[in-house]
Amino acid sequence: MAFLIVLVLSLALTNAAMEDEKVLSCNPKELSPCSPAVKTGSKPSTECCAMLKKEKPCLCGYVNDPVYGQYIKSKNAHKAFSACGIPPLSC
């Protein structure tokens, strides 16, 4: 009986961990709606803000990426973060 309880609990924890992994899956290409705001300094779209909020846990990882870092560190990106209510990054 104790074995069955341990088995059920471990399966539940494994499933919870897998769900967390799915939620935290980072995809910088999802930030493409922010491209105009980052490139020109224009006001970010609603879609951009939604994607920034979704990808917020990933932004510090993008800072060190050789492809995306230059965009995430840019003045215009920080303007977009602010306009979308994203606090300054503390990476």
Automatic annotation (TrEMBL):
Domain of life: Eukaryota
Molecular function GO labels: lipid binding
Gene Ontology terms: biological process: lipid transport
Family matches, as Pfam families: LTP_2 (PF14368)
Designated name of the protein: Bifunctional inhibitor/plant lipid transfer protein/seed storage helical domain-containing protein
Signal peptide positions on this chain: 1-16
PANTHER family associated with the record: BIFUNCTIONAL INHIBITOR/LIPID-TRANSFER PROTEIN/SEED STORAGE 2S ALBUMIN SUPERFAMILY PROTEIN, BIFUNCTIONAL INHIBITOR_LIPID-TRANSFER PROTEIN_SEED STORAGE 2S ALBUMIN SUPERFAMILY PROTEIN
Alphabetical keyword list: Lipid-binding, Signal, Transport
Domain Bifunctional inhibitor/plant lipid transfer protein/seed storage helical, chain residue ranges per copy: 13-86
